[in-house]
DNA sequence: AATGAATGAGAATTCATTCAT
DNA sequence: AATGAATGAATTCTCATTCAT
């Protein structure tokens, strides 16, 4: 099902993720990437047409890995509220466990380095979580907002909280994380 | 109260904001900045010690301009709910009216180019909105969450929605904007 | 008599000729040659020791192919003037029909990439046309110039005219071609 | 009248001419040029947008210098035949005295590195010698060929002879040079 | 304050060539 | 004979920064 990624290509991906997270997108030369990945300059250009192409391809890969991981835990048969909280909390901890990936993604997603074509590719990865929210709307569990709006608000909350946790780790304990999930749930559900 | 910014310095700020938004932080050389600003290379280094210093200083300036603008509209004497919505909507439209500034800020805030010292400076700009939320908690209007958590969730929602609007402008109409504000309000208030 | 050229070697020759003509000697990497020839990198180095060796060998081949073609039409028994014109015109049209070969040869012959050894090899191909001019001198048809001088002036005129035809195709019609041949004939013959 | 060429730009021109003549257009890296010229890498790119731009600009400069030099000696009031021989011989010795320039020009003019725009610029330098040949035709001294054809045949003969002289210096003595000039004159004049 | 030519280390990328298969 | 991934030195070009004027 999954594409087999050649070991060198994977090493380049890993090195790029780490280095962009620590040095910044603006400050990660190819020379550093090849050194960290332990490959030759030529090998990088064997697998990727250019630095931009590498970044774009890695962006797609990182985004879909995260999507896959978050969604794989999703239990559509549990009570809806329970499923929602488990999704939110799972996603939070998954993101939190991959700080480099998140840093990479955030740096890219705000930069013109990511092409429109790449963005279009990435959209498709939202499919399964979209279904979950559609189901919630259909069953009357949550407000009938546009799926992309829900997605944006939930994802935005999680990412914001992780950034806060990065700056103030002592503040964001399990209780706060739960409060943030509740914030989203309360924002989503129909009040009568 | 405010420092007078010399015209050339302002031109450099403006040029940098525009260029980082359109070319990316990773792809905006000083040579382009000086050209766009219409100043000499020497002038840039007269006003700023280095490129990093320029970016950091502009980051502080842009952040506080936004903060000032959003808060200046805040009416602490109106009914709380009304004030909240007016704050949220005002903030949304202000951000939306400054896409370059927002793009610049988002690119910087996820990059190691912004120093810890700069981040510390920026924190102080939250003061007045913090007071607004503290007042809401004290009066029992909203849940007693940590101020920084509230701030993060609200700011995160607004920024997320603006990014969505950038990608899908036709989707994010006034109704959607209001729905997002309601999402935040419902998430904040105490349910009984 | 002729060596059989293996198909892959021929494909490499053809690709090199085409590419050097269109991209320039300075801008024709081996990677492009192998792609255009449809062979592997290893195959190129099986047939040729190096890029320089490939260019030099192709130069010899191209030069002698042209020489052979031009001379094969030469009729030593016809009236001398008639033979001369038929030689000149034949040569012109043959060169004109192989623009890539001519472009390749001209680029090489002015570049230090062609070794002295290669140049020495190529000289031998002039043998038969040399005999034709020697005969003309012996019979008193043309001036007693050194064979190499005659050769140079005639060949130079033909090549110059072809270059002109490349830049201004509409100018160089059959009449002009004949005028150029007459120019050479009039320059060669003894005036009394 | 003439543009003042800044000393560094002139040094880059000189170095490029020398190096392309000795190493070949395909084998003259910028690093060698900057070293030979005694300037920094940045300086080269301050004066020229790219290597191609440098080559093209130098081509125009070299061509027009040669044109100017050859034509400056031209005496339109002398008897026509005498003027012609003096032009031819002058041109020959001028070219012969600038072997690097000639080698550079020949390598470029057969290579796609020279753009159509550059070729168009260069054509304008032929103006004055064109007038000389037009005058000869009008006065009935030479055959009524197209000016560009005459130009091509004469220039081609001179260049061919210089190439021969390069390969066989002992062969091309003053007598041979005169013979070649006579070849051209005899080819040009009307026979009755 | 201001200029802009100049620097040179370093960036992205290319390319002739090799070698394990 | 043939392949094509891999190499890494070399190449073109960039860019933050300086400094004489």
From TrEMBL, chains A, B, C, D:
Q: Which residues form the signal peptide?
A: none
DNA-binding region, as residue ranges, is located at 29-48
- Is-annotated flag, keyword Amino-acid biosynthesis? no
Mind listing the GO molecular function terms for this protein? DNA-binding transcription factor activity; transcription cis-regulatory region binding
* Keywords assigned: DNA-binding
Gene3D superfamilies, alphabetized? Tetracycline Repressor, domain 2
Q: Which PROSITE patterns would you find in this protein's record?
A: HTH_TETR_2 (PS50977)
Q: Which residues form the HTH tetR-type domain?
A: 6-66
PANTHER family in alphabetical order: HTH-TYPE TRANSCRIPTIONAL REGULATOR RUTR, HTH-TYPE TRANSCRIPTIONAL REPRESSOR FATR
**Protein name stated in the entry:** Transcriptional regulator, TetR family
